[in-house]
Write a structure and sequence with these properties.
Layout: E1 4-8, H1 13-25, E2 30-33, H2 42-47, E3 56-59, E4 62-65, H3 67-77, H4 89-115, H5 118-139, H6 152-156, H7 158-161, H8 163-171, H9 182-192, H10 195-199, H11 204-227
Parallel strand pairs: 1-2
Antiparallel strand pairs: 1-3, 3-4
Bound molecules: glutathione.
Glutathione (GSH) binds at residues 9, 12, 14, 36, 52-55, 66-68, 239.
Length: 239
């Protein structure tokens, strides 16, 4: 029997992606909850010496790092479950395009929209809005980004449907609303109401408290930078 361990962190959207994929495939695994912001375990540092981040999937003693890489590994290793990526090479390329877009473009902009202040925040809000328009177009006419079933793009877009919504509510933003993005709104409802997804979301109150602490730290960093004459601008947004 395969031994599958997931080094993760309870509130991380990256780790949640892996849990969802393993559950969709029906793979049993052990979850090791890392305190990545205070003390990383020697095992995590051993398995991911390059990035020193979670998630890390350890399959029969062999580590796989980086959530997008792990998702493809899961899809190829446990072929019997529902497919996370399509078989067609062009369709696969499109999945990789959108997941890269989500991680490299959307995630940083949306994070900055929540954590920065002033002009920097205004720019991040505008950028997020422009990026979300692309996603609105892509999901239009479909139940999920993957078609009728949840696929890798849906799983990777998880942070938009839950983490960002909680974040923007806390900060008082109106970037992603059902009025501005009706198709994304429908997708979020479908996605979040799917049993496996719903059961794997971190508790809202716990996540809200974690975000609150981060936002306060970001605000303090901005105020300190401004007082020191550094201009602030919210650039000190912590991870
Ligand atoms: N590109 C990575 C990002 C993972 C990531 O940022 N993980 C965070 C937790 S949400 C982490 O481990 N942070 C610890 C650190 O930055 O030192 C992935 O897709 O797996």
């Amino acid at each position: 029997m395969a031994e599958v361990k997931l080094f993760g962190a309870w509130g991380s959207p990256y780790c949640c992606r892996i849990e969802v994929a393993l559950k969709l495939k029906g793979v049993e695994y052990e979850f090791i909850d890392e305190d990545v912001h205070n003390k990383k375990s020697p095992s995590l540092l051993k398995y991911n010496p390059v990035h020193k981040k979670v998630p890390v999937l350890v399959h029969n003693g062999k580590p796989i790092c980086e959530s997008l890489v792990i998702l493809e590994y899961i899809d190829e290793t446990w072929e019997e479950g529902p497919s996370l990526l399509p078989k067609d090479p062009y369709e696969r390329a499109m999945v990789r395009f959108w997941t890269k877009f989500l991680d490299e473009k959307c995630m940083p902009a949306m994070r900055k929209a929540c954590l920065s202040r002033g002009e920097e925040q205004e720019r991040a809000k505008e950028e997020s809005t422009e990026l979300l328009k692309f996603l609105e177009g892509t999901v239009s006419g479909k139940k999920f980004f993957g078609g009728d079933n949840i696929g890798m793009v849906d799983i990777v877009a998880n942070f938009i449907s839950y983490w960002f919504i909680i974040g923007q509510e806390l900060v008082g933003l109106q970037v992603l609303t059902k009025e501005k993005f009706p198709k994304l709104g429908e997708w979020m409802d479908e996605y979040l109401n799917t049993i496996i997804i719903k059961e794997n979301l971190p508790p809202k109150d716990k996540l809200t408290a974690m975000f609150q602490a981060r936002f306060e730290a970001a605000a303090t960093a901005t105020a300190t930078a401004a007082a020191a004459g550094g201009g602030g601008g919210g650039g000190g947004a912590p991870k």
